[in-house]
Amino acid sequence: MKVTIKEVHSVFAWSWLISNHAKENGESKNDVDDEEDVCGICRASFNATCPGCTYPGDECPLVVGDCNHSFHVHCIYRWLDTTSSKGLCPMCRQPFQLKRGLAINDSHIKKFQDLHLRRTQGQAQEALAEGDEEALGRVADQQSHGNGIIDEQGDVIMEQGLVVR
Amino acid sequence: MSRIVKEYKKIKKVLEGHGEAFENLIVQLAPVNEYDLLSWKATIRGPSDTPYNGFSIGLTIKIPSDYPISPPMVKFEPYKMPHCNVNFQTGEICLDILTRQHWSPAWDLLHVLKAIEQLLQEPVPESPLNVDIANILKEGDRTAYTGLVRYYFCGGT
Lengths: 165, 157
Ligand SMILES: [Zn+2]
Ligand SMILES: [Zn+2]
Ligand SMILES: [Zn+2]
Description:
heterodimer, A: 165 residues, alpha+beta, 3-stranded antiparallel sheet, two-stranded antiparallel sheet, 5 helices, 5 strands, elongated, B: alpha+beta, Ubiquitin Conjugating Enzyme, 4-stranded antiparallel sheet, 4 strands, 18% strand, binds zinc ion, ubl conjugation pathway (chain B), UBQ-conjugating_enzyme/RWD (chain B), transferase activity (chain B)
């Protein structure tokens, strides 16, 4: 018998390569619903999209925090963009920062820095308006974990000496 | 698929008996209408080591459109729940995890019901919404506390 190949259709499967740190740290998996890894905010699989997106993959990427908790970038951004988030990871309540040196985080670092800056500025202005020295100190403290500091006027001084109002 | 749809699936599974942790607590937890997952009803059992033991207590849950970024709005039924941290007229609950300041989108409705169970077990008379009950608790009179709660349940006002 002779077989002639007329056409080849390639089919690929893909999935996000998620760091296993969280599991190594002995974090127990939520026993009931997840046979696979899900986003802690929307509970959808990392290999699916957040509720706002249609196509998984580049349209709805993942980010990994310093604390090793991963989320759809849209989900964690939406949360961190609220004042009530106080910039904390929903899972472990530590200040959420993107883990450095991870390829999947690289393209989002600027956006998250801007967000962090916006939030701390907002807090500083609020504290300033209320004359709340203690809160201002706290904000300045938080800010110094980011990449700028806040002076007494509530302006944010970036590492480069750039002043952001 | 929205988060509340995911939760609904999980809740159905849990209530079908895969989650023993909730068996003693939840009688019912379901949307009022299958086609509107923003409005829920729950019934919980009063915890055994409390004056609520033996009573079923109703709750209403409203899911905000930006859930789980914002917390669910959970209340007891009006004029039903005698508890020092519950407004008797409105059913409003004073519970930190239900406030924007303390809520985390990592939590879900099952967490919330667990937290409410804990509030029934450990009332906080220092921040009361029902002064009568708070005062009795502060005096440390368990018998009077149980008596008053039961009096309310049996139709007293
Ligand atoms: Zn998500
Ligand atoms: Zn998305
Ligand atoms: Zn975390």
